[in-house]
């Protein structure tokens, strides 16, 4: 790839108000005020307004979005910090390498810096690709005019694919102008070597010496990153603060998806500094974040090149095995709702996984794990194992009561009772795409479940049952009243089995989608046979109703 410098961006000037007629001026100013939110702010009390931590990144764009500005935005968002951007260059880049670089004109970098710094007052500035000496000088000038709490310099020079992002001509302005202003500078091995005139760096001891020499250029802290040490070693970074060395060590994740780790680490450090952390805790948190993001993303496949991007939001992992739930909640899943019971499985000497497998084979359309007595650790392990089975069959798996277990195993949702965690709180914790069900006995509770953002309600006990003590029975009339009032799909529960499922479905109550059963499936010798029988009854009821 040739490193070329082209002016591709013109610098359009903002329209001058003096050229507009007076009536147009007032319209224009009004619109501007609206856009800037002045009208909204004027209506708010000062105590309603919250200043949030803010990082400005001054860096290059990576079209593949693994590194550069895109990584910075994602890292800051993942770390809960606002991020504004000044773009210094646009690269045509993917997982194979860098195919082209367009450096932005200095005066347009200046214009962006002015726009952001004069208005928004970020707490921390983080720099990435600074492709020309002129851009470094402009930035240093602006930082003097608009000082920030901390400057984090990631001295980007060469991409991992070996392509030049900032040539050697940049080194003197880095050493003489930018580094003396930095709270922390974060070179990788190659960059540290370049800053030190080509000093070979191959070991941990070399990293210590390099950190000390780079500290002499004036930054308060130097973090030499060891991502490029041999793959057999831990991922170790060395911090030197002018007095002491600190080693930050994590296991090395075996993954090709490390493109952008450097940008993301520096942005995460900037994010923590913006929140008010010390440098040492900022580096510790940032490094832990990179390690877990790499761990989550180790199997994701994006692009055909040797170095893929990773996922900052720890979300893509679930697609990695093609085993994620296909879509949002489908009320027809409530048709045959199997609820496990640890005591019954123990009594019949079967494992929870065997019970779930048999229920699904027999026709269960959703499974809820209700493990009242299990230790947390055992429950989590069972939940993970059952989830694997459910995913293989496209059957959603819900966890009774335990939002923490649902989160930890990434189950499809939870079912909560009236005295468990409120559904609206569970919704905040679980996010918009998980299933939440609520047990309701009255129209008021059904209404509340709807307002709280639940997906369905479980209504019962319809008939007397041994599974729940002191549980008043609603009868078919009570069930019908709640179904009529509900805005959510309903599954009937409580003492339902092969003998009475037909009577429940025959009610033809609005919103009633199916029956939930515990004992009728699990307090029997063969879960498979009982589920098959119940499935047959429900299908027949459906046919008859139609
Ligand atoms: N495989 C890995 N497992 C765990 N941590 C890693 C791994 N690879 C890199 N890191 C960590 O990621 C951070 C970035 O280090 P690295 O040396 O890769 O930066 P870089 O070369 O500037 O990255 P890039 O140029 O790809 O953005 C460091 O904290 C490093 O220890
Ligand atoms: C734009 C950009 N900045 C930084 C890096 C370093 O990872 C990269 N590859 N691309
Ligand atoms: Mg880097």
From TrEMBL:
Superkingdom is Eukaryota
Q: Does the keyword Ribonucleoprotein apply?
A: no
Which catalysed reactions does the entry list for this protein? 2-(2-carboxy-4-methylthiazol-5-yl)ethyl phosphate + 4-amino-2-methyl-5-(diphosphooxymethyl)pyrimidine + 2 H(+) = thiamine phosphate + CO2 + diphosphate; 4-methyl-5-(2-phosphooxyethyl)-thiazole + 4-amino-2-methyl-5-(diphosphooxymethyl)pyrimidine + H(+) = thiamine phosphate + diphosphate; 2-[(2R,5Z)-2-carboxy-4-methylthiazol-5(2H)-ylidene]ethyl phosphate + 4-amino-2-methyl-5-(diphosphooxymethyl)pyrimidine + 2 H(+) = thiamine phosphate + CO2 + diphosphate
Which Gene3D superfamilies has this protein been placed in?
3.40.1190.20, Aldolase class I
Q: List UniProt keywords, sorted A-Z.
A: ATP-binding, Kinase, Magnesium, Metal-binding, Multifunctional enzyme, Nucleotide-binding, Thiamine biosynthesis, Transferase
What positions does the domain Thiamine phosphate synthase/TenI occupy?
336-521
* EC numbers, comma separated: 2.5.1.3
Pathway-wise, it operates in: Cofactor biosynthesis; thiamine diphosphate biosynthesis; thiamine phosphate from 4-amino-2-methyl-5-diphosphomethylpyrimidine and 4-methyl-5-(2-phosphoethyl)-thiazole: step 1/1
Which residue numbers delimit the Pyridoxamine kinase/Phosphomethylpyrimidine kinase domain? 62-306
User: What is the enzyme's class at the highest EC level?
Assistant: transferase
Offer one Pfam family short name for this entry. Answer: TMP-TENI
The UniProt entry, under InterPro entries, shows: Aldolase_TIM (IPR013785), HMP/HMP-P_kinase_dom (IPR004399), PM/HMP-P_kinase-1 (IPR013749), Ribokinase-like (IPR029056), ThiamineP_synth_sf (IPR036206), ThiamineP_synth_TenI (IPR022998), TMP_synthase (IPR034291)
Q: Which coenzymes or cofactors are required?
A: Mg(2+)
Q: Return the HAMAP family for the record.
A: TMP_synthase
Q: What is this protein called?
A: thiamine phosphate synthase
